[in-house]
């Protein structure tokens, strides 16, 4: 049998049959009586997992001037919520076992709305504490939603994951493009522009309420996979996840400020970021499918990372006449790097239990590592007084991601030094 033809079924089988792998240790969940309502709730929740991160970037210069923030403190502000994605992710399964995943999602959505309100209403203290609360909320929900998709849409897990990813990217794009116009609408008040994104979180909570009332069997982790922290391949997957995420959150946090200093208005800079994020939808869906057609994923990893670096350097150094072309290239590259990072977690795992443990490791350590990128950019800008030197950090992170990706992209399983069959 052609081993190449077996790669896509391997990926689909791991996603589709993940629930079956848990049958020995848990009872089957209650059937979903209104799947359309659950799907709508999932989409609305996913739409709220990036606006708190991408809405601040177009207003960062205005916020910094208003509150007297240095570039280093502004860098810390962009770093804090990303750091929380990694630090608070381990709380998600603990809370889910205690209260149920659906109830936790509802409660954390309300916490997210509170964090967004806090950062827009109470000056510098509220800005930092609200960013921390919002990041913690996103970190917890982000861990729980894939498990709910896997449980309640087991036979459509691949398609539902694609819908979830598209909603996540769409939320980021909407916030990046609409926050500055909203602040202008509210009498040029940046606080109201940021605070607006509390409303979608509350709307999502309303539509999620029926799921919190429905009694589901608690989703239990079947077993703890030992030895991942000593597995080189697991660390390569983790490093690739963290390094590509670092570039993504640098773009979320700093790209509008870079473009504003290069001559764009805040509105236009936000639109460029929004357009780049929208383009990610194309490669986020296509890159994993193309990557599984070959013998491994190393070539795909190199290609999408080079596209990302090309787009970054173009936005930073190239003439502004071609800015939109570079923004499109950046979006295609980053959509591919993110989706490949998620795909590697599945492809490098023998079964759903290993995939869950590897996912926790990659997200926990990876997002913690990713948070250092925006902080480093702020420090470099503060030290150099401009953006030119920032390009070196792009190059170092990108090359490191390629090196980690060349290891993670090999056709091996974590915990075993032999090729996938």
From TrEMBL:
Key words of the record: Membrane, Transmembrane, Transmembrane helix
Gene3D superfamilies, per the entry: MFS general substrate transporter like domains
Keyword Protein transport appears in the UniProt entry: no
Keyword Transmembrane applies: yes
Xref: SUPFAM superfamilies: MFS general substrate transporter
InterPro entries membership: CynX-like, MFS, MFS_Cyanate_Porter, MFS_trans_sf
CDD domains: MFS_NIMT_CynX_like
Spans traversing the lipid bilayer: 36-53, 73-92, 104-122, 128-149, 161-184, 190-209, 233-252, 272-292, 299-320, 326-347, 354-380, 392-413
Top-level taxon: Bacteria
GO cellular component: membrane
Family annotation (Pfam families): MFS_1
Range of residues in the leader sequence: none
GO molecular function: transmembrane transporter activity
Protein name: MFS transporter
Source species: Pseudomonas trivialis
């Amino acid at each position: 049998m052609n081993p190449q033809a077996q790669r896509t079924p391997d990926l689909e089988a791991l996603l589709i049959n993940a629930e079956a792998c848990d049958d020995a240790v848990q009872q089957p969940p209650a059937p979903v009586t209104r799947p359309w309502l659950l799907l709508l709730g999932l989409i609305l929740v996913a739409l709220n997992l990036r606006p708190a991160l991408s809405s601040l970037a177009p207003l960062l210069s205005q916020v910094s001037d208003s509150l007297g923030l240095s570039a280093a403190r502004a860098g810390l502000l962009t770093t804090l919520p990303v750091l929380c994605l990694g630090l608070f992710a381990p709380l998600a399964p603990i809370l889910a076992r205690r209260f149920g995943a659906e109830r936790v999602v509802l409660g954390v959505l309300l916490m997210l709305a509170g964090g967004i309100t806090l950062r827009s209403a109470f000056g510098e203290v509220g800005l930092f504490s609200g960013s921390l609360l919002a990041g913690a909320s996103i970190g917890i929900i982000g861990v729980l939603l894939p498990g709910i998709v896997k449980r309640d849409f087991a036979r459509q897990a691949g398609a539902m994951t694609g819908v979830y990813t598209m909603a996540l990217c769409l939320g980021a794009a909407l916030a990046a493009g609409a926050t500055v116009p909203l602040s202008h609408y509210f009498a040029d008040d940046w606080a109201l522009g940021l605070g607006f994104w509390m409303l979608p979180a509350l709307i999502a909570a309303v539509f999620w309420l029926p799921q919190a009332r429905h009694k589901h069997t608690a989703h239990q982790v079947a077993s703890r996979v030992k030895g991942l922290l000593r597995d080189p391949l697991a660390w390569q997957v983790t490093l690739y996840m963290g390094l590509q995420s670092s570039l993504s959150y640098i773009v979320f946090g700093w790209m509008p400020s870079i473009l504003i200093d290069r001559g764009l208005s805040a509105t236009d800079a936000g639109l460029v970021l929004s357009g780049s994020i929208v383009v990610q939808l194309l490669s986020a869906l296509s890159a994993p499918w193309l990557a599984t057609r070959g013998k491994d994923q190393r070539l795909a990893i190199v290609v999408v990372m080079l596209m990302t670096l090309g787009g970054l350097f173009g936005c930073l150094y190239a003439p502004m006449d071609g800015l939109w072309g570079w923004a499109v290239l950046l979006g295609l590259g980053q959509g591919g790097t993110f989706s490949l990072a998620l795909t590697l977690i599945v492809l490098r795992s023998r079964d759903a239990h290993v995939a869950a443990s590897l996912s926790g490791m990659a997200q926990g350590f990876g997002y913690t590592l990713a948070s250092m990128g925006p902080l480093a950019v702020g420090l470099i800008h503060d030290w150099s007084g401009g953006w030119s030197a920032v390009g070196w950090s792009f190059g170092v992170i990108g090359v490191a991601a390629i090196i980690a990706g060349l290891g993670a992209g090999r056709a091996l399983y974590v915990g075993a030094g032999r090729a996938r069959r």
